[in-house]
Each structure stands twice: as structure tokens, then as C-alpha cells.
Amino acid sequence: MPRLILTERLPIKLWIDVIDEGAWAQARNLANLPFAYKWIAIMPDCHEGYGMPIGGVLAADGMIVPNAVGVDIGCGMLAARTSLHTLEKAALQQIRNRIKQDVPLGFEHHKTAQPWTGFDRAPDIPIIQQELDSARRQLGTLGSGNHFIEIQQGSDGNIWVMIHSGSRNFGLKTATAYHHTARALCTRMGYSLPDRDLAFLPLDTREGMDYFTAMNYCCEFARANRARMMERVMQILADETGANRLEEINIHHNYAALERHYGREVMVHRKGATKASLNLTGIIPGSMGSNSYIVKGLGNPESFESCAHGAGRRMGRKQAQRSLDLAEEQKKMEGVAHDLRTRDSLDEAPGAYKDIDEVMRLQQDLVSITVTLTPLGSIKG
Asked: How far apart are CA 338 and CA 336, in angstroms?
């Protein structure tokens, strides 16, 4: 059950025991926005972000906030259950090597444009049209930071493949452009902001509807991006083991959607939060080396039918590189094929993240676990 803390305007409901000062200040700013609806929901993986904390849920009446969606629009998860039941270490290493050769990682893009029917549906919005040629080379690329491809053993007896990625630089450019548009509009209309990173767009303006359209298109691109990588990974698995794909789940955790809650249609912003409507299948990944989970939503209205999107960071990237012990973090990865080799890679080490099992314990009223996934091999962006 969440804790309830009152603020000057709306309350904040927290599914977290301890929240860092920066994230708490951002949650209070959200609660004092004049268009925020009912309360702010804070998930157990919460940590500080830009304007709005990661792991925050904001229901807004008539407004949309670009930074409450985030800069990686449509970032999310794709998990596929395969027909494979076991995987030998030699085959796993060969699969990892081929993935690293065939899927562009980090800041790499394809050298040539990639086909996708969705490019023909691109909305006639300046930033989308401006970035479209670049997006054609980004489709099917992983990105950097916390993005990953992982091979996992499921508690259901099957081998799973999980991908975490989003809309790449295409989404970043779109998010940045509309954040600047929102700031300019708020200044022009004389709106007072608790934080300029919470600049918003009224949905009854051209700017607001253009952003909503552009955001949805970036989400579509992000979904296709994950799917394209999964196609390549599954082809590699088929070549090496004969495995095929039995089912898959492809979801976002950075987006906004019009939904009905407590009798009113509102714009629900989930920034690092996963939709958890009743019986909806979701994915909650752990950190590199820890378990991930396939879940079913419980439809809890208090969280606006949302749950955590992952483990959530415990410390920033530079702090992790300075303070974590490489040998100790490598020990946590025993039994998992990984590339945690240098201090520079400690920003994504297990110690940089919260305990995923504690995150799951704190949201037992939001989701139920259906499959536990144990990592066998991990590839970072």
C-alpha cells in the first residue's frame, strides 16, 4: 500500500520507502502544477530525472508535458519466449558474438537506410520530417546507456530474449524541440512554472496536438526499432540452435496517453513507469546480472494503473564509476556472460541500481509475477 504525503496542492502517493531529495523536490513540483489531477504516483524504482522523476506518474487535465514523457520517447521493453529450453555456454558465447556483430550498439547506426512501412505514415510535422532521413539509419539499433539485449532462462522452462531500447536520437530530437516549444509558449502566455523543465502544452493548441501526434509516432518507431532488433536476434538463435519464437511482449514505459480515471479523461504521463491495467502483461527488468520479471497488472486505480519500469538507479553514472569496486561488481555477475571489464563500464554495474527484488516487494498491490527470468548473457549498448 502506498504512503500518502500532503503538499500545498495535491497529495503524493509513494510506493517507495526512501526517496532521494532531488526526486522528492520534483514530485512536489508536479503536485503543485495547476492541471495535475487527483495525486502524483511515485513508483518504487523512482530516482531524479529532468523535471519529473523517473518512476513518476502524472495525470494531467487538458495539458501535456514533454519532459514528463522524457527525452527517449517510447523507450520500453520487448521480451520473446523461445522454443529453446537450455543453452550451452559455447552456443551462448557464439550467439552473443554474432549479436554484437550484427546489431549496431551504442552510438552506431546502420550505414544504409532501413525499410519500414511506418516511414510512409510520418506526420507532416517539421521536426519529424527534418529527422526522418537519420531515423531510417537508426531503425534496428540498440543505443547506449542502460539499453541492453539479454538472453535469459525463464522459470517456465523456456529461454527468453529481452531487449530494452527506445526511439534513439529521433525521439531525443523530437522531445528537445517540443520542450523548447513548450517553454516559449508558457512564457508567451504568462504561465508560472515551479521548474522550467516542466513546461507544458495545452491540448487545445496546435502545438499541444502536434507534440501528441509526434510523440505517438516516435512511440511507433520505438516499437518497430525493438521489433527489428528482435528479428535479427531470433534469426541468430534459429541459425545456432534451431529455436523459434513462441510469443512476445512489446511495451513502452516513456509515454503519455489519454485514459479515463475516476470518471474523467486525463493525459496520463508515465516516465519510467509501466502500464499495469488488470491482467495486462508487462515486463520489469532488473539490473545487469539480476532477475527480470514478466508480470500481470492488478489494475490498481491509486497508481493510475501503473507500476515500476525496472530496478531504478541507486547512484549516478559518474558516482558509480568513482565508487564501485570492479572486482566486487564482476563477482556479482558470476555465471552470466557479460562485458563488465573496465571502470568505465561500472556506470551500468549491478551496484549502480536498486535491488529489483525489493522493488517487486514494494509493488505487490500493483502487479503479480508470472515468470521469473534469470540472466545467462547480457549485451550493453
From this structure: 6
- Which tens digits make up the pLDDT trace of 337-373? 888 888 888 888 888 899 999 999 999 999 999 999 9
235-277 pLDDT, tens digit per residue, is 999 999 999 999 999 999 999 999 999 999 999 999 999 999 9
Q: Point out which residues pair with 308 in neighbouring strands.
A: 273
Which residue is it, cell 495545452? Answer: 202
3-state secondary structure of 148: strand
- 121, 101, 124, 324: which is closest to 209 by C-alpha? 124
- What is the rounded CA–CA span in Å between residue 66 and residue 200? 7
Return the C-alpha torsion angle 71, 250, 38, 16, nearest 10.
-80
At 304, list the grid cell.
493510475
- In this structure, the strands spanning 54-60 and 264-271 are antiparallel
- pLDDT > 70: percent of the chain: 100
Give first-to-last CA distance, the chain, whole Å.
36
Question: Which sequence spans correspond to the domains of the chain?
Answer: 74-249+276-314+353-380
pTM over 0.85: yes
3-state class percentages of the chain: helix first, strand second, coil last, to nearest 5: 35, 30, 35
* Bridge partners, residue 59, by sequence: 268
Which residues sit opposite 14 in a β-bridge?
3, 42
Active site residues: 309
Strands (E), 184-299: 201-202, 245-252, 254-261, 264-271, 273-275, 281-284, 292-297
Beta strands in 73-230 (DSSP E): 76-82, 148-154, 159-165, 201-202
102, 110, 125, 224, 228 from 115: Cα distances, Å: 16, 11, 21, 11, 10
d(CA 194, CA 25): 10
Dihedral (CA of 297, 299, 303, 305) sign: positive
Specify the CATH class of 74-249+276-314+353-380 in words.
Answer: alpha beta
